[in-house]
Amino acid sequence: MMGLAAGMTIGGKIPFTGTFANFSTGRVYDQIRQSIAYSEKNVKICASHAGVTLGEDGATHQILEDIGMMRMLPNMTVINPCDYNQTKAATLAIADHEGPVYLRFGRPKVPVFTTEDQKFEIGKAINMIEGSDVTIFATGHLVWEAVEAEAILREKGISVELINIHTIKPIDEEAILKSVAKTGCVVTAEEHQRNGGLGDAVAQVLAQNNPSPQEYVAVNDKFGESGKPDELMKKYGLDAEHIVTAVEKVIKRK
Q1: Is residue 205 over pLDDT 90?
Q2: What is the distance of C-alpha 119 from the center of its chain?
Q3: For 92-119, what is each residue's pLDDT tens digit?
Q4: Helix, strand or coil, per DSSP, at residue 135
Q5: 252 CB burial (10 A radius; 0-12, 13-18, 19+)
Q6: Average pLDDT over the chain, rounded to whole?
Q7: Which domains does the chain have, with CATH numbers?
Q8: Please, are residues 64 and 192 in contact by the beta-carbon 8 Å criterion?
Q9: Which conformational region is residue 63 in: left (phi greater than 0), alpha (psi within -120 to 50 degrees), or beta?
Q10: Is the dihedral of CA 194, 244, 123, 210 positive or negative?
Q11: Which among 168, 132, 146 is positioned nearest to 246, based on CA atoms?
Q12: What is the pTM assigned to this prediction?
């Protein structure tokens, strides 16, 4: 699939590939690296069913390493939208973007909470909620979990700044540094391994510019397993409750 897509670009086509995230990355990594990223081919890799919320298919299909794999490839743009409206807007945006793109999305139904007519700008984070005590940087459908966590924390008197990082590469360094300069501490939330994903991308920006306390809401060096998506989110520490706990912990480190 990836080799065919790369070849189609030579004839001026803009190919969009589509299959499970595991098959879009892990099984074809060499083809992506050699034929798409290295060659800077204008291929859009659309990867569905990412993360543990794939559910009953289990660990063999629940890829949690894909963002890291794609982030490391030169020339590759990595996008992880949060709901239907943002996914639609991102799809239209990457069609106009010249160069290889990895577009990641999941399987479960999630609330549609972004606007239908939104403008999607690659590489520009969205400040969804203004706050002063802590910044939550979230990506994918964990943005909704962060929205729910913010409501709980607000009741506890904690002011949360919530930023939707839909583009993980190139990451919006300006938005990260501006927010953390105000709040002084960070929680990152993603349905991905702790290593290599959004948390690492944010940590790299902060380490070079403004070292700050950070907590990760992510899978901690484990494979997934078969189960109901909601149960797996809770077991692997990816739900709103775990975001609340991470926020309370990081604030104590300020």
Answers
A1: yes
A2: 18
A3: 999 999 999 999 998 888 999 999 999 9
A4: strand
A5: exposed
A6: 97
A7: 2-104 (3.40.50.970), 126-251 (3.40.50.920)
A8: yes
A9: beta
A10: negative
A11: 146
A12: 0.96
Q: Phi then psi for 214, rounded to 5 degrees? A: -140, 140
The dihedral sign for the CA sequence 40, 25, 223, 241: positive
Residue 169 DSSP label: E
Token pair for 231: 């149960």
The predicted pLDDT at position 108 comes to 83
Cα separation values, 89 from 30, 102, 166, Å: 29, 15, 11
Rounded CA separation 224/161 (Å): 30
Closest CA to 246 of 130, 149, 126: 149
Q: Is the dihedral of CA 166, 168, 170, 174 positive or negative?
A: positive
**pLDDT tens-digit map of 2-14:** 999 999 999 999 9
CB-facing half-sphere around the CA of 79: CA atoms within 13 A: 27
Return the closest-CA partner of residue 224 out of 188, 189, 193: 193
138 pLDDT band, cuts 50/70/90, is very high
Tokens of 233: 């989110």
Give how far Cα 139 sits from Cα of 10, 66, 86, Å. 33, 14, 12
CA 143 to each of CA 39, 40, 150, 164: distance values in angstroms, whole numbers, following the listed order: 33, 31, 10, 6
Number of C-beta neighbours around residue 14 at 10 A: 15
Q: How confident is the model at residue 163 (pLDDT cuts 50, 70, 90)?
A: very high
The token duo for 55 is 């559910």
